[in-house]
Amino acid sequence: MGRKLIDRGLILKALLHQSAKDMLAVAFSILVLFSLLSIFSNITMRIRLSIREPSRDKLIWWRLGSSEVTNTYEELYPSSYLPFFSQFAFWLLLGLASVGLAAILWKSH
User: Fold this and answer.
1) Do the beta carbons of residue 40 and residue 86 sit within 8 Å?
2) How confident is the model at residue 44 (pLDDT cuts 50, 70, 90)?
3) CA distance 48 to 21
4) How far apart are CA 90 and CA 38, in angstroms?
5) What's the gap between Cα 57 and its chain centre?
6) Reduced DSSP (H G I as helix, E B as strand, rest coil) percent helix, strand, coil of the chain, to 5
7) For residues 56 and 73, what is the distance between their CA atoms, to the nearest angstrom?
8) pLDDT at residue 43, rounded to an integer
9) SS3 for 1-45, per residue?
10) Residues 91, 67: contact at Cβ < 8 Å?
11) Is residue 94 scored above 80 in pLDDT?
12) Interval 56-88: pLDDT, tens
């Protein structure tokens, strides 16, 4: 009975049966989830900085790069986890993409 409950999960099913398609689907889903969360956290930081901007040029935060926005947000809101998550998600996506590319190149030889 316990084994049937474990087999119903996509991740556990892929791990137990070693299906490459299922593992690829799980990895792709995780990448998409992290990229969407990273985009939303970046937009949230830009909105909060735009609201806090005292000058008339509130669109300045939409023209700056992500690292400048992250650094400024980190200074103004030191207890927030959004800058850390934004940087973590970026490096995680970059690392997973490079591992995926290396795996593809490794299998092609």
Assistant:
1) no
2) very high
3) 40
4) 7
5) 30
6) 80, 0, 20
7) 19
8) 92
9) CHHHHHHCCHHHHHHHHCCHHHHHHHHHHHHHHHHHHHHHHHHHH
10) no
11) yes
12) 777 887 888 888 888 889 999 999 898 888 888
Q: Yes or no: say if 31 and 96 are a contact pair by the CB < 8 Å rule.
A: yes
Distance (Å, whole) CA 67 – CA 70: 5
Q: What is the mean pLDDT of residues 11-27?
A: 66
Q: What integer is the mean pLDDT of 17-24?
A: 66
d(CA 23, CA 32): 14
Question: Domain locations in the chain?
Answer: 20-108
Task: Measure Cα distances from 46 to 40, 50, 51, 68, 71 in Å.
Answer: 10, 6, 9, 10, 12
**Rounded distance, CA 85 to CA 15, Å?**
27
Q: Is the pLDDT assigned to residue 6 strictly greater than 80?
A: no
Distance from C-alpha of 104 to C-alpha of 101, rounded to nearest angstrom: 5
- Angstrom distances, CA of residue 43 to CA of 9, 22, 38: 33, 32, 9
